[in-house]
Amino acid sequence: MQVTIAQALQDAHCLVDHIEARLLLQYALNVDAAFLAAHSDDILNHEQLNTFQLLVMRRSAGEPVAYLVGEREFYDLTFKVTPAVLIPRPETELLVELALSRIPVNQTCKVLDLGTGSGAIALTISKHRPLAHVTAVDLSPDALSIARLNAERLGIHNVQIRAGNWLDGLDHDEFNLIISNPPYVAQGDPHLDQGDLRFEPHIALMALNDGLACIRHIIAHAPDFLAAGGGLLLEHGYDQATICRQLLAESNFINIFSCPDLAGILRVSGGQRDDRALATKAHC
Ligand SMILES: C[S@@+](CC[C@H](N)C(=O)[O-])C[C@H]1O[C@@H](n2cnc3c(N)ncnc32)[C@H](O)[C@@H]1O
Question: Which residues bind substrate (predicted)?
Fold first, then answer.
């Protein structure tokens, strides 16, 4: 039986949605969207059809499209992703926007991304602020390999990608901006058994103490690593903005705020190092 591109897509629609079917077929044929549109009557060979049908079956069993095709768009860049890293989320673009608005275009600036995963945040910032010196840290060796691969693929050189447990081993008073999208899902949260989360690494998703352990750790220790006037920006869960602002206040941050994502959910909170409080501490 001869199957055209149009027919293969139509057959797939009962198992996966339109856009996903197109992405999987592009990947199976190693072509772009324009090719699919222009060649809808082309006949697929046996191997192409088998590859596509297998991808559709895996997707319909729940595997994320990004892992199947090995890539995900984030901001304006394409990142290699594997099951070793979180799939970059559209809501994390808010964290990048807020970071970019605080990093000068014409001056150097030291930026730290904690829990870099695929490098989505650190590399997007590095690309858009070539004068910035970005440090990207992760505990997972497999994630670090992917972040390094992405830096190479994107031709980004103003980033240092290093292994570390949050801020351990970094220099005090170093950074003008610290950003993080840490794990913030509570252990036992039912979302962990749903959708893409089932396939993503637990180290990227889950945190102890109701999902707040990593956020608490970063907020408590970040002031020591911020330069004068430096800022901290954190992505967090849909119901964690209030506690984040409280923790920031307890760590003597000033100009504390929370910012909504496009869905209207308070998604990023942050603040600035209070240099007066640190000056007082130094005098004591
Ligand atoms: C939610 S993912 C964020 C990935 C990426 N920054 C993004 O936004 O797509 C959290 C990341 O934190 C890393 N991580 C977890 N515990 C860590 C620790 N103790 N120190 C450093 N990184 C850690 C995980 O390996 C994971 O890559």
Answer: 181-184
Joined together, the tokens standing for residue 183 give 């794990």
Cα 94 from Cα 31, distance rounded (Å): 31
Task: Give domain 85-283's CATH superfamily.
Answer: Vaccinia Virus protein VP39 (3.40.50.150)
Contact assessment for residue 146 and residue 66, using Cβ atoms and an 8 Å cutoff: no
Q: How far is the CA of 281 from the centre of ligand 1 (A)?
A: 31
- β-pairing verdict for 132-138 and 109-114: parallel
Angle between helices 213-225 and 241-250 (to 10 degrees): 40
Pocket (CB within 6 angstroms of ligand 1): 86, 88, 92, 115-118, 120-121, 137-140, 143, 164-166, 181-183, 203-204
Residue nearest to atom 9 of ligand 1 (CA): 88
Every domain of the chain with CATH number 3.40.50.150 lies at: 85-283
Contact 217, 187 (CB under 8 A): no
What is the distance in A from the centroid of ligand 1 to the CA of 6? 40
Q: What is the pLDDT along the chain (284 residues), one digit of tens a residue?
A: 799 999 999 999 999 999 999 999 999 999 999 999 999 999 999 999 999 999 999 999 999 999 999 999 999 999 999 999 999 999 999 999 999 999 999 999 999 999 999 999 999 999 999 999 999 999 999 999 999 999 999 999 999 999 999 999 999 989 999 999 999 999 999 999 999 999 999 999 999 999 999 999 999 999 999 999 999 999 999 999 999 999 999 999 999 999 999 999 999 999 999 987 656 554 43
- Centre of ligand 1 from the C-alpha of residue 180, in Å: 8
Annotated binding site for S-adenosyl-L-methionine: 115-119, 138, 166, 181
